[in-house]
Specification:
homotetramer; 309 residues; alpha/beta; 8-stranded parallel beta sheet; 12 helices
Amino acid sequence: MPGLPNGFGGIVPPVCTPMTEDFEVDTASLERLIGFLLDAGVHGLFMLGSTSETVFLTDRQRAMALDVAVRTAGGKVPVLAGVIDMTTAPSLEHARNAAKAGVDALVLTAPFYTRASQDEIVAHFRTIQAAIGLPIMAYDIPSAVHVKIERATITRMAAEGLIVGIKDSSGDEANFRGLVMDARALPGFAAFTGSELLVDAALLLGANGSVPGLGNVDPAGFVRIYDAARAGDWQRARAEQERLYRLFSIIYGGTPGRMGFTASALGGFKTALMLRGVIETNVIGRPLTRYTSEEIERVRQVLVEAELL
Amino acid sequence: MPGLPNGFGGIVPPVCTPMTEDFEVDTASLERLIGFLLDAGVHGLFMLGSTSETVFLTDRQRAMALDVAVRTAGGKVPVLAGVIDMTTAPSLEHARNAAKAGVDALVLTAPFYTRASQDEIVAHFRTIQAAIGLPIMAYDIPSAVHVKIERATITRMAAEGLIVGIKDSSGDEANFRGLVMDARALPGFAAFTGSELLVDAALLLGANGSVPGLGNVDPAGFVRIYDAARAGDWQRARAEQERLYRLFSIIYGGTPGRMGFTASALGGFKTALMLRGVIETNVIGRPLTRYTSEEIERVRQVLVEAELL
Amino acid sequence: MPGLPNGFGGIVPPVCTPMTEDFEVDTASLERLIGFLLDAGVHGLFMLGSTSETVFLTDRQRAMALDVAVRTAGGKVPVLAGVIDMTTAPSLEHARNAAKAGVDALVLTAPFYTRASQDEIVAHFRTIQAAIGLPIMAYDIPSAVHVKIERATITRMAAEGLIVGIKDSSGDEANFRGLVMDARALPGFAAFTGSELLVDAALLLGANGSVPGLGNVDPAGFVRIYDAARAGDWQRARAEQERLYRLFSIIYGGTPGRMGFTASALGGFKTALMLRGVIETNVIGRPLTRYTSEEIERVRQVLVEAELL
Amino acid sequence: MPGLPNGFGGIVPPVCTPMTEDFEVDTASLERLIGFLLDAGVHGLFMLGSTSETVFLTDRQRAMALDVAVRTAGGKVPVLAGVIDMTTAPSLEHARNAAKAGVDALVLTAPFYTRASQDEIVAHFRTIQAAIGLPIMAYDIPSAVHVKIERATITRMAAEGLIVGIKDSSGDEANFRGLVMDARALPGFAAFTGSELLVDAALLLGANGSVPGLGNVDPAGFVRIYDAARAGDWQRARAEQERLYRLFSIIYGGTPGRMGFTASALGGFKTALMLRGVIETNVIGRPLTRYTSEEIERVRQVLVEAELL
């Protein structure tokens, strides 16, 4: 029976969706990537997140990615599925497909393109939760959806049983700390930071875990931060986090002007995975710009300095 | 054969999508609404725009709305179909469905949720144009997609043959004037303002027409502005526009705090259409909040003052 | 006795503040500039506005500019003084200095750096008005102060007798139209647009006049738009406005990357005035970047094409 | 001789500026407040910051506040003076006045109202530094000045000798971490967080100290966080920080709708200081709204729960 384990926490990377040259899901590469993550000891898989390029996929492609993940994870760790669409009706369809695929939980954003009030965000969650029944984590990512799910809204939804946790990609760490403090009164509520650069700090505050995009490239590093923090060894956690901070510069591999920042970031991750031999191509979703050989070389240099190549 | 007529211009309302109590497309009401618009003399129908609540519809519902429109329009005026989705792959699917439905042109936004550069926006248009072949108008709506399609990008796409016009919902009239001036060197390029409050001014600048959301409620009024402007009677155009400016206050019928602004605006339009006997319900897409009887009463008052009831 | 004439309207340029090589007010150049504007038939002088680089001046320099203006205008047209500072206490000092200099009216922004509510904006105006007694125009410029003075706030302040008009530099023409419509019920209220690119359109809506930055460079052109509009000759107004639209490209003379946009715009105006022989240097306030010879050449080209050189 | 001590770090509160009923600097209250802070063991005094309501003061009042601070501090801890004004010319005057008052360092924001590029921000710092000679800390507060001083700009200015540290009030902790990492290669560079809610986390990252607004109300609490962190006792640091997080709710004492957020925050601090008997009134600068008795009561409740009353 699906669902999240008691005390769910740890490192749950938002898994990249490898693509073939003609923009199809590269299932063989995705299997390898998931195997690579599981071998490194990650505690869950977040499919169809922003780093997964979900919004670049058709419905059929979203389903393919989930099928590979559920099959490859084989119950070893929970599989979470992002539900990212503009409003309730299309989100319901994605949520149903994800439930059919056998995922353990959903991760749901606020509506976007339109402007929803906080009450309307709650209505969105309520409808999906009532129809699907899977545990839901709130996905707060104002840089993409241009509305914040406020702290009071989060705690209200948690109290009402609509959500079991949050993935906080807002960059507002002070507000996140408030959520973590609130969560102590909410049994089973799990607060994950979406930042890959402040995992040690988030764990110090009391976060349950992290959903680090960079965790695709160096999952073992993030597991080490988590383990060090659990052991109270903050010096070691910090040293590891600083190493990964430097590694994060792969997202600046794209030539400014030649591409937008999203392409640079997504291309940096995929190029690193390609160079490390985990996935086949560094293709990213249309209409974003793909890395060229010069840009690939920049990523290679960073990986060499990080002793990952 | 589909396509836009030479010298395409005039009043092209973004047609509301009436809904049943269970959030299905109310096809009978949609037929009535389109008949109401055609009787008023509008020059085209823009289906699946923002006012049409496109982002609240499933793919199946988008197709239903287009089918009703193409059938009801019966070739009397062009039918344009909005293509609003996050990136190229899902937009391609919508564009194919619209072509199958027999529309005359597409109206395409920039990608959203993700952050695309201006070059990547062009790549988005290029892929859709190459695959579908229908004429495309650019839909500039930064309040929804959070990126502007810059003037230089518009003229570049027009010169390259990727677009045949623009629907400018940016609210940046000074920039729009630049586009209108540029358009004189672009044969057949049509510049439409998305504002319903500055149609006379836009026509004074040289715009080809308007896509007024409020045109659902009082299409004849907007046709009168257009006719007056064509006749050079700016006093009459202004008087009519000021009357419609006051009518626009129906969008503030929703109680602040009880709903967000989008719900208030969409609900205002649909409530007015319901009160005028054109459509059956004032249901709007989930998760937005529906008008209550007190809010309906406010809209009724405005309609009475405007002598539309 | 100071004050604005009944039916105040027309072209009221925000007068540039010429500077010497050591960043002092170049009073001789300022006298020449004011003479140049008066000769062209402008209807008032707006000193210490944004285009005047007020925020780059010390208190002493603000006073110098006002003294030159009041003396040079010699009562032929009203002199308005911008009061631009962060909160009430320093604004009161500027307002007192302006009154002492003998200006006819003040033009007051909302507070900035801090975040004031609409009620607090009203309190700001109320304190200044009570202490000084000069007529006050509201200066709505959210791009600089990062808050909008809402339409309801404007009409409320007008009804309360706190303001006699508005300079609207918000770029929100639809909202401005609402103000113009409101103003018909406010005896003596004058609505000026801050746009130099939509003066004809603003006059069509019913605006009383314009405060065009570009009016420093070609004041006669703006006076011609105003006269044509008053005569109902919208074709001629539009043709003149389009010519000035093209002239406005002088503000893009600065090399992107080498300077910010404000420096490019202010430098463009001053370089054009220097090339036309009206002012001595193209020095702008610190820390902004000054035009180099290559950039000056770009401005010269535009002036030549516009037959202003 | 003025200047900052080697290894400058710790708790440096942005000192409130107490006011009399007629909006004058209440020097007796300011002396008491500074004594209260010194008794609690703070490591420096930051006068004329945002929490100090600097932008609500006249030049004369700024000078009064500095005089009291330098005299009361008596050399026991460094006194830093904020230099907050729109551009270089007025900032130079403030900087000169501060130097005359005998402060040990300046804290300088980017220009505002205008839009400066990163190079122009550097030019701003360079001019002030060359003219004054006092050590300067950069004050990054994009919420107030609407531009970010980018990480590369900070490190460039540090390398050039223009700045000796940063007060980071940007809320971007991930970027701040990068600065802290950069700072290891910059001898003597001190990185202070402006957050009062993440002091433990900032110290974990390696920050040198904090400039906590709430430190006016409970300076001893912040000193305890600092001491615990220096001792490696992160549990104790966190517990203390969480207590202060709850105390921070005094900033929400203002009734929403009745006042803006800035008034609520500043009024919350001053009301708490008044209730604790440190300062005389809770007057804040015009045009902001002052707390009423009901709002004062809310603050009292929080203080009682925090056992500070």
